[in-house]
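Example 3.2
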Amino acid sequence: MINYRSIQDTIVHELEIKKSRFISYLIPIQNEEEFQINLDQIKKEHPKATHHCYAYILEDTGQIQRMSDDGEPSGTAGIPILEVLKQENLTYLMAVVVRYFGGIKLGAGGLIRAYSSATSQALQISTLVENTNQAIINLNMAYKLNDSFQYLISQLANPPQILNSQYLDTVIHQIAISQEEAALLEQQLADRFNQQIDWQFDHIRPVNLPIKNSSKKP
């Protein structure tokens, strides 16, 4: 089950249009407090900038959405920034575009294109992630079964991740696997090893997994 989509790390990208500099920041955040801290820091880094326009989306379903034109004509900055994030179904993410005015007015249409391009170009160089739930499982088996077990999981289309292994009186592997695939693997192991591998559920953990960025140019 996919909880939400966001980006992996902070991205900074600069674009120049008709002598105006547009510096884009994409920053993963968890709440509005983090948004404000990051926005304040960006403003400190660019105290002489003409505008600090932004948009952010929060919650798994993206129900919290905020934006600001920060002095640009209404609807020419915040909305274009927000729309780029929404097109990729992203959340827990803030985008700030800092503008240094270059002396040439862009007009409403030009501003919309500029803020949209500044955000989308930053997104093109980011790594998208899907936050999903993994089941953490402890597998206990006899030494004689270990090689066959390792071979079986190596042949799977989506093999589980072995987090750690202990070689004591028996072999104990702790694995991480998606919730959807856990039941199937449990049945495969039971059938293949005649229930000689002890399967113990440990806990569920959320994890960010990189995915293909459809906004990247080939």
